[in-house]
Amino acid sequence: MKITEIISVVIFCLMVSVHQSGAEEAQSPSPPTSLPGHLKPLASKATRFPVSVIQDFPSPYEFFRSYVYPSVPVIIKQGARRSPAFQKWTDEYLKSLPESQQLIRVEMRKVEERQLPRMNMPFAEFLDRYQTTDEYLVARVPDFLKRDVLIPPSLHCTNVTANLLETMLWFSSGGTKSHVHTDYVDIINCLFRGQKDFLLVNYTRYRQQIVFDHPEGFYSSVDVERVDLNKFPGLRNLEFHEAKMQAGDCIYLPFKWIHQVNSFGSNVAVNIWWNHQAYVVPSPESCGRPEPGLSLADVSFPYHDQTNGDIQTDLHPELDFFRDPSATLTTFMDEEETDSLTEGQFLEFMDTIIPGLDQDDIWTAEALNVAHQIFQILDVDGDGKITSRDTDKFPVEINKFDPFSINLGQKMMILGDIIDGQISKQKQDILRKSEKDIPEDGNTPSRDHSSKFRGTRDQTSMPNQEL
Ligand SMILES: *[C@@H]1O[C@H](CO)[C@@H](O)[C@H](O)[C@H]1NC(C)=O
Ligand SMILES: *[C@@H]1O[C@H](CO)[C@@H](O)[C@H](O)[C@H]1NC(C)=O
Question: Is pTM, for the whole model, over 0.85?
Answer without folding.
Answer: no
